[in-house]
Amino acid sequence: MKNIITILTVVLTLVLSVLGFFLGGFSLTALQKETLNILIIVCMISMAYCFIVGEITTNNSQMDKLWSILPIFYAWIIAIRGEMTIRLMVMAVLITIWGVRLTINFGKKGAYSLKFWQGEEDYRWIYLRKDPKLNKRWKWALFDLLFISVFQNALVLAISLPMLAVMDSSTSFNIFDILIAVLLLGFIILETIADKQQMSFQTKKYSLLKENKKLEDLPSPYNKGFNTTGLWGFSRHPNYFSEQSIWVTLYLFCISAGVVSYYFFNWTLIGSMFLILLFLGSSQFSESISKKKYPEYSDYINQVSKYVPFRKYRGPKN
Q1: Which helix (H) or strand (E) holds 151?
Q2: Which of 232, 101, 257, 97 minimizes the C-alpha distance to 170?
Q3: SS3 per residue for 10-59
Q4: Chain centre distance of CA 273
Q5: Where would I find the H helices in 161-307?
Q6: How far apart are CA 52 and CA 144, in angstroms?
Q7: CA torsion 37→162→194→275, rounded to 10°?
Q8: What is the 8-class DSSP label of residue 148?
């Protein structure tokens, strides 16, 4: 059943992306083309930085550090060049709130350093480097170039492009824009709560482990090793659910601005659709690690939905 859902998610995402490209081909104005060229230059500089510095330092979290920072730059470049209309300002402010919060949260994990290229590396890159398919130096360098540096940078630019689409909109800021802004802010708050709950759980767990205790000797719920409290008792990845929802919601501004074609599509939808695919793969990989580390995690998977908060975790079934 889970494999069927995964396949359907992939197929639906790709179909929506194709529809967005072919049915929503609005023409860029001269201003939009010039702005897009600036954004592409920034993106290419970031690609080069992430690959070169990642290879030299063997710390492949360079893009992880920039993930929450680059959209802020993209947003304000577009807003300023779009003459700071109300809609562009609202979108830029919301993206800034999202980016600043996520940057602070990532910084609490030790990801940033005064020497920007240093700091804690995402644990998933450490696991992936040991994978037989990637454990040779040239294979990892190719993966670093194509996926970490090029694809992820291109994706971050792509999810920001709904702002580019509304630059020259003749539709005034309206009630639908306000509702979309409130919805987007709601998802930012939801992601904030999810991250805070996870941070509190993990901090307490590792604090208890430092007292020379084994995981199974810790008090409940820390003895499981993974968080099942708060939002995490209803969704295995409430933060991922919120993150994907934020960028899909940002696209809705294209609809309120009247810059969509048939069936409410335009090609800037592609970014948020491919973001969904990225998180699908990322969540599957992180869960494969958790299943190896924590005996009860498989039971948690069977009881709790991956993204949308739906079913509450009831504990291991006897």
Answers
A1: none
A2: 257
A3: HHHHHHHHHHHHHHCCCCCCHHHHHHHHHHHHHHHHHHHHHHHHHHHHCC
A4: 11
A5: 162-165, 175-209, 238-256, 269-293, 297-303
A6: 10
A7: -70
A8: I
| 169 neighbors 29 (Cβ within 8 angstroms) | no
**pLDDT in the model for residue 229:** 94
What's the angle, vertex CA 224, arms to CA 292 and CA 279, rounded to 5?
55
Q: Quick check: 261 pLDDT over 80?
A: no
d(CA 153, CA 40): 10
- Spatial separation of the C-alpha atoms in residues 147 and 53, rounded to whole Å: 15
Q: Which two three-digit tokens encode residue 17?
A: 């992306």
- The whole-number pLDDT of residue 144 equals 93
- 60 and 145 Cβ atoms separated by less than 8 Å: no
Angle of helix 269-293 relative to helix 152-160, nearest 10 degrees, comes to 130
Report the interhelical angle of 70-81 vs 152-160 (nearest 10°).
Answer: 40
Alpha carbon 46 to its chain's center = 17
Digit-coded pLDDT (tens) for 37-72: 999 999 999 999 999 999 999 999 999 999 999 999
Distance CA 293, CA 309 (A): 24
Phi, psi torsion values for 285, nearest 5 degrees: -65, -45
Higher-pLDDT residue of 314 and 316 is 314
Q: By the 8 A CB rule, do 222 and 204 touch?
A: yes
